[in-house]
Design goal:
- The chain has 3 helices and 11 strands.
- With 211 residues, it is mainly β.
- A hairpin with a 4-residue loop joins strand 10 and strand 11.
- The longest helix has 10 residues.
- The termini are far apart.
- Bound molecules: manganese (II) ion.
């Protein structure tokens, strides 16, 4: 697990995204889903595995309907600090646009409720192209599957498991679980990133007057 591609793609003098450094969280494994209004609106699904956030771009976002399989394109690993990243990547930079923390929480592998941090099993599931996990988020709850498409390097399918109906689409509200803000509200607020404390300081950015 490394972050070379993540660092290569970004100019950290320009973007407020965190620099890529490996570190594992202390408690249970973490996940985050970020709503990202880049050139195309999509959701980024990220799972902590081996000290990084292994990431998939999901164009349509997750669906609570088990018959609704959503394309999830495997993209570069992101650093653990990205769990808390919400703000706007400057236009013209890689991934330029607004990022919302749409959902976050902990997860564990399916059938292993007692094992809160099974990194080695997750590494094996990635290699096997079959991930079966239980999410404990605010919006996404219960068993979810992420399955690699046969004969494909990047394309996976994200789906709610038929085994339970814990997740409710009605809970998929369009606001940040971190700040309660809408995409529009985030886009109007400048966020100062402080990676050392992993806390964000927010300040209002004066709206630019159009000439
Ligand atoms: Mn993205």
């Amino acid at each position: 697990m490394d972050l070379e591609k993540y660092n290569e793609k970004r100019d950290f003098d320009r973007t407020k995204e965190p620099k890529g450094e490996l570190h594992k969280s202390k408690g249970a494994l973490q996940f985050v889903v970020q709503k990202h209004k880049a050139s195309h609106l999509h959701y980024d699904f990220r799972l902590e595995i081996g000290g990084v956030l292994v990431s998939w771009a999901v164009p349509k976002g997750p669906s609570a309907d088990p018959s609704d399989r959503r394309l999830a394109v495997h993209v570069e690993n992101h650093p653990m600090d990205y769990l808390h990243f919400e703000g706007t990547i400057p236009a013209g930079e890689y991934g330029g646009g607004t990022v919302m923390v749409w959902d976050t929480g902990t997860y564990h592998t399916e059938g292993n409720e007692d094992i809160k941090k099974d990194d080695s099993l997750m590494q094996k599931q990635i290699e096997d192209g079959s991930i079966k996990i239980v999410l404990e988020g605010t919006k996404m709850k219960g068993a979810w599957h992420l399955v690699k498409m046969k004969g494909d390097q990047k394309n996976w399918l994200l789906m709610k498991s038929r085994s339970d109906s814990d997740s409710n689409e009605k809970e998929f509200v369009a606001k940040s679980v971190l700040s309660g803000r809408t995409m529009e509200e985030i886009s109007k607020t400048d966020v100062e990133w402080n990676s050392e404390s992993a806390h964000q300081k927010e300040k209002e950015k004066p709206l630019q007057k159009k000439k």
